[in-house]
User: Which sequence fits this backbone?
């Protein structure tokens, strides 16, 4: 997979995470279940970002 695609996907994940964080900060959550659901989504976005970073590092090592 090209690094261009991975970098763009990373940007999309970061944007999605920021939108969720903004929603939490603005008090847009009324139920604890919704709060926990959003925290779970944020956690999975973090996991995906970490995996993409790992893949990009491997790609850079291969290119060198």
Assistant:
């Amino acid at each position: 997979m090209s690094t261009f695609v991975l970098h763009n996907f990373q940007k999309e994940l970061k944007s999605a995470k920021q939108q969720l964080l903004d929603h939490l900060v603005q008090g847009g959550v009324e139920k604890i279940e919704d709060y926990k659901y959003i925290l779970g989504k944020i956690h999975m976005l973090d996991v995906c970002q970490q995996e993409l970073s790992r893949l990009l590092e491997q790609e850079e090592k291969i290119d060198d």
